[in-house]
Design brief:
With 217 residues, the chain is of the alpha/beta class. It has seven helices and nine strands; from the N terminus they run αββαβααββαβαβββα. The protein has a single domain, classed as DHBP synthase.
Length: 217
């Protein structure tokens, strides 16, 4: 996968070994992303997922989103995808689009809902590196549910002392755009950093690439 360059002036991120060990040991990590600061754990760790819900006071009806390192990894994790869904996601990732898709595997309660799961390939070098080192990450915004996201990831250690490890980093102000891709055309469930106009243009290109006789799903 061809990576998009980090934003100008962004640091040369290296994943701290302590963060990798913390996540692999079942810990909760606060970290910067290309949108708002994130709070995450290994996607398959049911105990850690439950801890995130308790820390945030988050309703069980609001599932966590899974971060993945590439479009190919996301396709293996979920799916199957139609050709136009694959084309759309290839155009949008890495980036601030969360896609609601059919899930392929069993996940802990709170990661996904029913037969669907929200997935994203973030455009942040640290978040991507974490998924490569640790595997899929179940994530949410770093905040108490119902309150604004924290100013930066490091603030999570003041909010949840001794419960969360943090990797400091600058805050981005807008959450990801959430889109339902279990249907076509896609439906925006939450407006966010990817504008409706840009999304519509990419949806149109995906449509044009697959004329009616070639479309499936």
């Amino acid at each position: 996968m061809k990576r998009r360059p980090a934003a100008a002036g962004s640091p040369a991120w290296r994943v701290p070994g302590s963060a990798v060990r913390w996540l692999k040991g079942g810990g909760i990590l606060a970290f910067p992303t290309d949108t708002v600061p994130g709070l995450g754990c290994r996607a398959g760790d049911g105990r850690a997922v439950r801890t995130i819900f308790r820390l945030k006071g988050r309703a069980g009806t609001k599932p966590l989103v899974v971060f993945l390192p590439s479009v190919a990894a996301a396709a293996r994790f979920s799916g199957p995808w139609s050709p136009r869904v694959r084309r759309l996601l290839t155009a949008c990732w890495p980036g601030p689009l969360t896609a609601i898709v059919r899930r392929r595997r069993r996940l802990p309660h709170g990661v996904g809902r029913g037969r669907t799961v929200g997935i994203r390939v973030p455009a942040h070098p640290l978040a991507l590196a974490l998924t490569r080192r640790v595997g899929p990450l179940a994530t949410t915004s770093a905040n108490v549910s119902g309150r604004p996201p924290l100013s930066n990831a490091a603030a999570a250690t003041r909010l949840w002392p001794d419960r969360v490890l943090a990797v400091p980093g600058p805050r981005r102000s807008r959450p990801s755009t959430v889109v339902d891709l279990t249907r076509w055309p896609p439906r925006i469930l939450r407006a966010g950093a990817l504008s409706p106009a840009v999304l519509a243009a990419r949806v149109a290109r995906a449509e044009q690439a697959f004329p009616p006789g070639r479309r499936r799903g």
